[in-house]
Amino acid sequence: MPSVLSENDKETVKRTVPKSANKIQAVAVARLYIAYPNRQRWIYTGLQGAAVLANDLVGNTFWIKMVDVVPTAA
After folding, report:
1. What does the CA dihedral 61, 12, 15, 10 come to, rounded to 10 degrees?
2. What residues contact 57, with CB distance under 8 A and at least 6 apart?
3. Which of 32, 44, 67, 72 has the least C-beta neighbours within 10 A?
4. Which residue in 54, 63, 52 sits closest to 27, CA to CA?
5. How far is CA 15 from CA 9, 43, 48, 53, 55, in A?
6. What is the pLDDT of residues 19-66, one digit of tens each?
7. Residue 27 neighbours by CB under 8 Å, 6+ apart
8. Residues paired with 48 in a beta bridge
9. DSSP string of 2-65?
10. CB 48 within 8 Å of CB 30
């Protein structure tokens, strides 16, 4: 399956999600939108990156985390 994430992006995700306690189920490029304060209108927050769906092996729960894969300008 082709991926839009580069190898560097994948390594960043793997570094951010500790493998000892989590299993990555899926990763996708995502932008974050919110419907606040007006629930009828979605607004782009300006945040984008890799959305990670992972299984917490210790707590036996699933969670989603947004990982910034774009390096910040210094």
Report:
1. 70
2. 21, 22, 23
3. 72
4. 52
5. 10, 30, 18, 15, 16
6. 899 999 999 999 999 999 999 999 999 999 999 999 999 999 999 999
7. 5, 10, 13, 50, 51, 52, 53
8. 31
9. --SS-HHHHHHHHHHS-TTTEEEEEEEEEEEEE--S-TTS-EEEEEEEEEEEEEETTTTEEEEE
10. yes
pTM score, two decimals? Answer: 0.79
What are the residues whose beta carbons fall under 8 Å from the beta carbon of 14, sequence distance 6 or more? 24
Q: What is the DSSP letter of 70?
A: S
Contact 33, 43 (CB under 8 A): yes
User: Which amino acid is residue 11, in one-letter code?
Assistant: E
